[in-house]
Design a protein that fits this description.
The protein is of the alpha/beta class and about 150 residues long. The chain has helices at about 10-25, 40-55, 70-75, 90-95, 115-125, 135-145, and strands at about 1-5, 30, 60-65, 85, 105. The relative contact order is 0.16.
Amino acid sequence: MKIGLGADHRGYKTKDRIAQYLQNNGHKVSDFGTRSDESVDYTDIAIAVAEAVRKGKVNYGILLCYSGQGMVMAANKVRGIRAALCVNAEYARFARAHNDANVLVMPAGFMKFGPKMKLTIDTFLSTTFEGGRHLRRIRKIGKYESSTHCV
């Protein structure tokens, strides 16, 4: 699977560990930065990863910043993106199964790289969208995104 990975200066160390973990598990990783603790605008990275997902260059995106809030807000501005802020595997399972989330956002300031984060990532990547009544709701989001009300 191809994964787009990005973090701001508050999450880049965790991002690098996630990249290694994903590669060790057979995934191809596209790293959208950043690569240091020098301050950057999370918006640029979130939008770059979200656009890669939207254009089909990667299957899913994973984003990190200190709280996760900025990344999830910015990524969700990209048409067709359903970014979900997940703090554990149950959040990730519901985000995929019910909301067909295509970008996982985690708060690097509140989650450390370890078994819990690995399980959250693995659950997100392995859970399939259930469709059914959930598909009807996802289609409503898409319809609104395509309307003149959403610019």
